[in-house]
Amino acid sequence: MAKKRKRTDVPAEAAGAEKPDDSAPERPPRTLFGFKEPAPDAEAAPAEAGSAVAPFRNKEKVLITCSRRITYRYRHLMQDILSLLPHAKKDSKVESKQSKGSALNELLELRSCSSCLFFECRKQKDLYLWMVKSPGGPSIKFLVNAVHTMEELKLTGNHLKGSRPLITFSTNFDEQPHWKLVKEMITQIFATPKDHRKAKPFHDHVFAFSIVDGHVWFRNYQISVPHNEIDKVDKGGLDKMTLIEVGPRFCLNPIKIFGGSFGGPTWYENPYYISPNQIRALEKRQKAGKYAKKVKAKVRRKMHEMENTLEPDEFAELWKGE
Amino acid sequence: MVGLAREEALAHDEVIMDDADSDVEVSDSEDDSGEEAQATPSENAIYNKVAILEKLEDIAWPKNVDWMHKLTIEHDQGGKVDVNDDLARELAFYTQALDGTRQAFEKLQSMKVRFLRPTDYYAEMVKTDAHMHKIKGRLLSEKRRIEEAEERKKAREAKKIAKEVQAEKNKQRAKDKKEQIESVKKWRKQRQQGGFAKGNDDVPDLNFEGEEGFKQSKKKRPGVSPGDRSGGLAKRGKEGKNRRSRDAKFGHGGRKGLKKQNTAETTNDFRSYKGGESQTKKRKRS
């Protein structure tokens, strides 16, 4: 603890110089977390892990809320994510009718959080996830599929609560701008800050985010590797490393990207996205078409018969007497 | 895999709907929103790349942030992964995570950071102990179920084989018996033909396999009185001190109930029977 205090004291001046700027509503362009001032921060440099710029402190705080009428499955998913992110705060349910956007923005400011994960459940069937960066940041709306919570007995792994995760991305996140944005937001939200109070020291689990078929898939694995010391893996141990799935699992389908938080100009629409309502309507229409088709087929058959009448059958009267 | 029906249905539907357009890239409308193309719904989409990239610059962490803050690894997926093939997809995720972790561990090791959890480090875990207990129970029961099924299968196989072996044995035994009878008949026939000459050379080679040598038969033995119920087998050890005199005085010993029995001797023994007629007449009078 003493070590921590010492570090906050040394760059206090630099931080003090930054603070009035940070708290002002309009941030300086380009950076949120401090200026690139090499001179006064030369003293701070040895205290940090060797960076010549202002010490980067990850002060990310995530607010996790949900809408009303959320089902048990999605509520458990929310709780699981809450347990995975020690820098997250849970808030009470939000009325999802009008003015949802402004209410949530106010809530964010009130709880002084820099991002938000909002789980919106509609019709008790579909779950939408909003990833939002707080003051004027972009917001992304996803449709969540394929939810498996940590409760499932087939997911047998376990890890420390609050340990910092290793995050792996597949390289197709760097292919397109909207995926780059998604990747950046995921990194900022899911990476536990280094010196967070509730963060535990070791790294024993890994997140895997990959893009397959236009969806973002999330997996969480526990790392088990044979080791005897805490800073070195056994010889050849890296080859014997196994991953055990801890959960939860979900699949995100991006719908739209907005410029502001919970609203704003639309910057991206997913062309392949079909809302679950439309899918259900389509299925119903297909089923409903059965009866109409049958009736039509009957009418057609009648017309056909009327047009091509059969010749009178010679043997029609043969068995009539009996 | 745990119920993936829902997710498959949705993913499949979307693929069906847009199969024709899957090759068409998103429209390169660089201008602001509002540009609509009426052709197909998939080309209607807005895509404001410039604004996205700008905002990305805004919110991103500074470029030279220590890797320790982010802990991110990129991994190349290789070929295209089939969404609907569960195993392949999960394998792809697994390899991505595994590869990423290897890289990360190498980095951490070179940085001499303490990153491996020691086995005696007790702290709150993300799943409770009770939950892990349930998981363990389930795993054990599954294992037991599989083992039992295998055992049952093995037992069935073994039974089948045992039955076959048994049938074989029975057949063999029947054959042997038949052979023996045949050989005796043959020998008898030969003797008949040969005229019962003494000193036969063709003594039947009756094999007594299955019998343990010459068993002691109690029925017909030479030199044994018919009244001897033990068949001459009862052993009389060396006679001890005045055995004979004691015998004469107190009787011979042996089983109690054998004294008064109808044996061949006693049937024809009338010593103890005196005067038949006079006896009855005497009794009748008195």
From TrEMBL, chain A:
InterPro entries named in the record: Brix (IPR007109), BRX1 (IPR026532)
UniProt-listed PANTHER family: RIBOSOME BIOGENESIS PROTEIN BRIX, RIBOSOME BIOGENESIS PROTEIN BRX1 HOMOLOG
Keyword terms, alphabetized: Nucleus, Ribosome biogenesis
Keyword rRNA-binding appears in the UniProt entry: no
Chief location bin: nucleus
Molecular function GO labels: rRNA binding
Sequence ranges of Basic and acidic residues compositional bias: 16-29
Domain of life: Eukaryota
Residues in Brix domain copies: 60-263
Bias kind Low complexity: ranges: 41-51
Compartments, as annotated in UniProt: Nucleus, Nucleolus
Organism from which the protein derives: Digitaria exilis
Pfam family, one: Brix
PROSITE patterns: BRIX
GO biological process: ribosomal large subunit assembly; rRNA processing
Identification of the protein by name: Brix domain-containing protein
Disordered: region residues: 1-51
Gene Ontology CC annotations of this record: nucleolus
Protein family according to the UniProt entry: Belongs to the BRX1 family.
From TrEMBL, chain B:
Compositional bias ranges of the Basic and acidic residues kind: 1-15, 155-185, 236-250
Keyword entries, A-Z: Coiled coil, Nucleus, Ribosome biogenesis
Compartments (UniProt record): Nucleus, Nucleolus
Keyword Protease: no
GO cellular component: nuclear periphery; nucleolus; preribosome, large subunit precursor
GO biological processes: ribosomal large subunit biogenesis; rRNA processing
Biased composition, class Acidic residues, residue ranges: 16-35, 202-211
Region called Disordered, residue ranges: 1-42, 155-286
Keyword Chaperone annotated: no
Origin superkingdom: Eukaryota
Record's compositionally biased regions (Polar residues): 260-270
Family statement: Belongs to the EBP2 family.
PANTHER family according to UniProt: RRNA PROCESSING PROTEIN EBNA1-BINDING PROTEIN-RELATED, RRNA-PROCESSING PROTEIN EBP2-RELATED
Name of the featured protein: rRNA processing protein EBP2
The organism's taxonomic lineage, starting at the top: Eukaryota, Viridiplantae, Streptophyta, Embryophyta, Tracheophyta
